[in-house]
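Blinded run. Sample ID left blank on purpose so nobody reads anything into the name before looking at the predicted structure. Input follows.
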Amino acid sequence: MTAGIHYQAQALHNPTSFSATGLPDGLTIDPTTGAITGHSTSVGDHNITLTASNLSGTSPDKNVVLTVAPAPPLVETSPFLPSNMNLWLDAADSATITHSSNAVSNWTDKSGQGNHATATSGQEPTTGTRTINNANTLDFDGSEALLSSNFVLNNTHSIFAVVSSDLNGYGRILNSEGYYYLGNGNGNNNLASFYGSGNWYDANTNTPASSLASPTVIGLLSDGTNATPYYNGTALDSKSSNMGSSVPAGMYIGKQLNNGQFWDGFIAEIIIFNQNQTNPDRPMIEGYLAHKWGLTGCLASGHP
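Blinded prediction complete.
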């Protein structure tokens, strides 16, 4: 039996006190209110005798049966995520965000790999200003970014994120030393990815349904040769990845390395694996993100 009020004794004629006998271990009665509370592991039926008193005397006994049932197990609300992730940034977890007056100086990596992201002074995104599904996001205003300086993106990788863009035009969510981008590819505000040898992928150009203007679950899976973008769990056309075998350390969040192209919008969560997360992991990770951030309605029918 869980804690709380399990029985409320009541009596007429203005009772001033209550008592109970036969209570199982862990339960007590409040002599003033008559509320029986507590936590008991004595599973079964218990015959309880209640009385109430006032200035005129004590009431006759009242017998009641109190049943203690075993509490069913509770499913933890921790996310379904494989344990081999390499970068996990979660704006909903306030313990991972270091800030001064909402200006974020550090976003702690929850993957266990220590790939924390830090901001240059004057380019700090803000926290505590915008939410989605009542969960905090980091707000990038078109001049702010973070850098995970030790993170290295392998040629084979899986990237998942929840983002939204405020303005059309070029803007980068992720950029690693000119080899890889994820963000807006053109003035139509479409999802795009870019790999080192110049192969772009623009998601459904001129199609409003593929815009990042609304909160979106995006993804990108590379098998080392080809990369497939995902928009709210739906695969788009694969393109050659062409990253090569040697990528320098460092991942910018919210800008392109050399020429800016800052992100203008919010970033809620980023998860990266340095391996290809195919079925069933990919749809389950997308489902976790969509459920957490209130975006399940954006996924196709039947998506986990």
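Unblinding after everyone has recorded impressions. Residues 94 and 213 are 25 Å apart (CA to CA).
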